[in-house]
Design brief:
The complex is a heterodimer of chains A (146) and B (207). Chain A is built from two helices and ten strands. Chain A has 146 residues and is α+β, with helices and mostly antiparallel strands. Chain A folds into two domains: 32 residues; 104 residues, Ferric Hydroxamate Uptake Protein, Chain A, domain 1 (Beta Complex), CATH 2.170.130. Chain B is mainly α. Chain B is globular and about 60 Å long. Classes of the chains: A alpha+beta (146), B mainly alpha (207).
């Protein structure tokens, strides 16, 4: 014997299923968000920025901007070269679009980063640095650009 | 000849209510997506395209996604894809537009009886889940082929990176398809609420 629900009952059941699905999906997206990097003092980190015919080196004794993006931003402020980036809320992360006048897309090249020779596979503001890490930002056409 | 074209246009756009709803859907698609631009994959073009195909049909199946994207895509070119080569932008734009037009046609294909019923909204919402995944797979392929492949990034990496974006897109569809589906099904079935004392809304349970 099939249960026949009124239109109102169907609406309540549908709303309950829908809200459960939305809540579950939202919880999953939050679990997948990369954990924010906790600020801590990092010593002897080095930053190399290789642009189109120029390069910048920055090696603070200590820094609390302990991400691949943080040290770049710190260098931009200290050394006075322009830095452009876009901030994404979902998923959270920073996307660098231009450094010192070299803009993504010029000559088919884009800003990419490596930490200790390992290609960055998360947003640069979610890549934590440790003592002695070497960060390279390179304006290159492929992952082989370093 | 002139009358012939006029008849074709009349038939393609439908009656006055259909036309107004079609324009409303375009506005919903453009304004909603523009307002949530910083939230990747939270957008209203998908819901508008699905509803255009399933509720309005006719030319609106294509007109709604194409008109909305004619406004929104240039904004994408000047923000997300700034600096990318023309062929890369053209390629990914093709995948985005064809994806949404496909959503519109699929909406037309599964067209429910246009009744203001929970079943109609539930059907559209349920269908939106696999269609969202199919759309994301399609555009992820385009993203890989035109944007990331030149960097030596494999399709598998792109699809893995796509997962959180698709979850947000599903979230977007599960919110906007039932919300706008309910509103537009109501308007399609009953028109605009009137202030006349005799205006009554039939109770589906009493039918």
């Amino acid at each position: 014997m099939a249960l026949r629900l009124s239109e109102r009952q169907q609406a309540v059941v549908f709303a309950a299923i829908l809200l459960t699905a939305i809540a579950g999906l939202y919880a999953t997206t939050q679990l997948l968000q990369p954990a924010p990097v906790q600020a801590q003092v990092v010593g002897s980190a080095t930053l190399d920025v290789r642009g189109d015919g120029w390069s910048i080196r920055y090696a603070p004794a200590v820094t609390t901007n302990n991400t691949a993006f943080g040290i770049l931003s710190e260098a931009s402020a200290r050394l006075g070269f322009p830095l452009s980036y876009a901030i994404f809320q979902i998923p959270q992360g920073v996307f660098v679009t231009a450094i010192n006048g070299s803009v993504n897309g010029e000559g088919g090249r884009y800003w990419q980063y490596w930490v200790n020779g390992v290609y960055g596979d998360v947003a640069a503001d979610h890549e934590a640095l440790h003592d002695g890490d070497v960060v390279l930002w390179s304006f290159s056409a492929s992952q082989d650009g370093m | 000849m002139g009358r012939g074209w006029r008849a074709v246009v009349e038939a393609g756009l439908g009656d006055a209510r259909t036309r107004i709803l079609g324009v409303f859907l375009i506005i919903v698609a453009v304004v909603g997506t523009f307002l949530m631009h910083s939230y990747a994959n939270i957008e209203t073009v998908f819901a508008a395209s699905l509803l255009a195909g399933s509720l309005l049909g006719r030319w609106w199946t294509i007109l709604v996604p194409l008109t909305a994207l004619a406004v929104l895509q240039p904004l994408e070119w000047s923000t997300t894809y700034v600096g990318y080569r023309l062929n890369a932008i053209t390629g990914i734009t093709f995948f985005v537009i064809s994806g949404y037009v496909f959503v519109g046609f699929l909406g037309r294909r599964i067209r429910p009886r246009v009744l203001f019923r929970v079943k109609s909204v539930a059907l559209l919402t349920t269908i939106s889940v696999p269609v969202t995944i199919a759309y994301d797979l399609w555009t992820a392929f385009g993203e890989w082929y035109f944007i990331t492949r030149p960097f030596g990034v494999g399709i598998r990496t792109v699809l893995e990176a796509q997962v959180p974006f698709t979850l947000y897109h599903l979230l977007s569809s599960l919110i906007f398809v039932p919300v706008f589906g309910t509103i537009f099904l109501f308007l399609h079935a009953y028109g605009w609420p009137a202030h006349t004392p005799s205006a009554t809304v039939p109770d589906p349970d009493r039918e």
